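REQUEST ID: PR-0412
SUBMITTED BY: lab tech R.K.
PRIORITY: routine
TASK: structure prediction, single protein chain
INPUT:
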Amino acid sequence: MKPAAAEPQSSAPGGSDPACIVLVCNGPGELATWVRPLAQRLHRELALRPVTPWADMALQLVLVPCPNATGIEHQVADRMGLFERISPAKRFWSLLLRPGRWPRRGVVVFLGGDQFWTVLLSARLGYRHITYAEWVARWPRWNDRIAAMGPAAADRLSRRWQPRCQVVGDLMADLSDAARSERPLPQGEWVALMPGSKRAKLQVGMPFLLEAADRLAAQRPGCRFLLPVAPTTSVQELLAYGSAANPIAQHYGSGEPRLEGEDLVTPAGSRIRLVEEQPAHGVLSQCQLALTTVGANTAELGALGVPMIVLVPTQHLHVMQAWDGGIGILARLPLLRWLLGAALTAWRMRNHGFLAWPNISAGRQVVPERVGAITPEEIAAEAADWLAHPQRLEGMREDLRSLRGQPGAVAALAGMVRELLPPAPRDAA
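STATUS: complete
OUTPUT:
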């Protein structure tokens, strides 16, 4: 039975029948790469509050439950200045039970999380519903439209639901090459260190990458490093994860980092520029190589055409608690955690499974994945080898560029939103 719709709002600030576009998301990666570009595009094409205060329509954001959320995603979104109202994930269930007053007309757009949350939300508000399907649209019956990232997602739909689907492309293909000019880096050989944004990943990623940076700097003295600070963490937290306050740090030899201006400095003297502005696409696009963990960041780097080595050090299985889906759930269970690393490695060997988004998308290895009891020494040596062969790096960069497809997905999805907006009652006559 369809839930009762929310109580309608009688009028907009301009006195006409109000309308609302609701973007739904669950994490900082999607906020930066999917939500933000679409929100900016919608504000350019439509008069929407809060950017246009007198407008009859508003743009709002609903954050949905996620086991790996930090709890401050709403603060990150608020700093964008693009949403009239932001509903934090902790209020999602109360929003469903007691939504309060909402505009009569609207569209809900799924952009990350569990797709079922948007099914519930759109039904509760009485709004039309679009799902941006990266891999599969799981609830096509309750979608008015489906925006597929690519043909593979569209082909997974049964013939019955195909008419509702349009292939729009990869939203991250719209990350412009012009980002290179946003903040030019000093000349040099730059390597991005991306330990992740979630606690479990940072516990391992920070000390691992600090030691890897020290070892890489010893092999290539001219190498320079940068580390984008995720919007859900802070510089002080990064320092803590790299220090003795983090028990995992004792397994590594980088020592206690300190802060000098914009740089994090290891006892060995490796200087790592901390980049706090978001998104960090401009500086990332200028890097020759990135050392990164698994997650949405691999898709972001791929869209920017940045070569990468993807790291999953399974000797610290706590990192897997930060993964989405079943693996993350299993990693939280003490009796199963210790079997997960061996099982994962065996599965990948038998099935050629991939963890990095560019490899998953291509169905082949485009970027190297290093899974197992890896060491900073091994990774530094591999990174040094890649940097010593720029033609190989350029080959990986071109491979990534070929995967991301043509830009235009943001504009196509914005067009679908406009088409789906129900007309005002007086216009429908």
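NOTES: The radius of gyration is 22 Å.
REVIEWED BY: pending
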